[in-house]
Amino acid sequence: MTFFESLLALLLAAIVLLQFSRHLSLPYPAMLAAAGVVVALIPGAPAIPIDPHTALALFLAPTLFDAAFDFPVGAARKLWGPLVAFAVVAVLVTASAVAWIGWAVAGLPIAAAVVLGAIVAPPDAAAATAVLSGVSIPRSSDAVLRGESLFNDATALLLFTAALSVQSGGGFTLPVDLELGLAAPGGILFGIGCAMIVRRTNRHVVGTLGGSLLQFVQVFLVWIIADRLHLSAVLATVACAMTVARSTEINASARMRVHSYAVWSTVVFLLNVLAFLLMGLQARLIAGRMHHAEFMDALGFAGLVVAATILTRFAVVIGYNRFRAWRRRGEDDAETATIGQAVLVSWSGMRGLVTLATAFALPADFPQRDTVMLAAFTVVMVSLVVQGLTLAPLIRWLGLDQQHAYAHDLAVARRSIAEAALATLDDKDGVAADALRHSYEAERQAAEEPPIADPLHRRRTLGLAAVKAERQRLEDLHDSHRIGAETYLQVQEEIDWRTLVLLPDEKRRVEES
Fold it and tell me: What pTM does this model have?
């Protein structure tokens, strides 16, 4: 099969597996990883070379930008302690442990061993989020898992870039030292400068299809230009995204925001599918180049790396949890994070797209490249399949599934925004104000605890029936040629927006998945 045919096959398989995972309450990243292995076993699978620079830009630039744009700055200020411990200390400890194994067991040079450590060190929060979509965990644990994703990616990628530069340059030299010293601050300043340009550019394309396309072009340009200037492309992308996000107006185009969310979610999912396809194809090539004894030795080495990634995260997370408990032993406040939450965060350290992308980015002359890539692929496979499939049962066994907390937070948010809307109508009279007041009052009552659901439920029932009649009438007008195609599409979009507003939560979540 050609690469395009293989991609279509895996996309179809991913869609099918996504439906199975949704109906069986199984995490789709685990099934997607398994699909990548199946691709490796398909006879006639094409051999596809991967350019290292292309791999990093293609897979990491949009992923990092997306994570940085949504980064919860407020939560990070409150949880800076665990974020630093898990996203910086845990990544460095894991990288160090794996580097020692690579040096002592596989005989890798020190710099190359550190590169391997940086590849497998960062957990993938997107994988954990997908696994946790069917449960609701304590808010602090959820904030830590989401918040650490950006920091651990940045830490690992900076370490990866530095170690790879040292390995490629033959050691620490003056040019290498200067490049590494200027890369971080230069990348941050470059990213902030790009964000200022992006803000001015976006004003002219907001609300257009070109605007959505420009978002991706800007992301790739920031990464590629920073890389060509020998600056940190990682920090440039992160700085650009966070600056753009902080400067986005609260009244920004709702249409653009909804459309961008759908597009970015689809693109990130597609990149995951493509990465696992390439993983399967690369694993097939690696296995074909190795003798049986060499392959078994490589698998044994990979097993040691897997054990190191799991055990070091447990040691750091639980150690930090117990240290915090010891520090707060004399305080009246309840312990902020229990040992059960520490176990949950530890077991949530699954590897994914960042590990795959950095493995793809290894140059052809990297020492023992096949062994290092096989170890990285094994870490991804074991973590997603073993940890991914057991994470939800572990949450329930630990008693941390808090669906009631999610429902409470949702009710609080809806009641608060409805009250804010009603406050603006206090001194307003007229038919329009009365209609809006009635609508927001129904939403406020539906968010009460216990909920007063009847008004909103009846509004939804009547509204959906009315929308159905609108759609039928629109189709009749279109079929009888009483309106043109442009008018038809415009009114159809208006009806779609009304339908989305009226849909109950459970139906909306099904459609989004």
Answer: 0.77
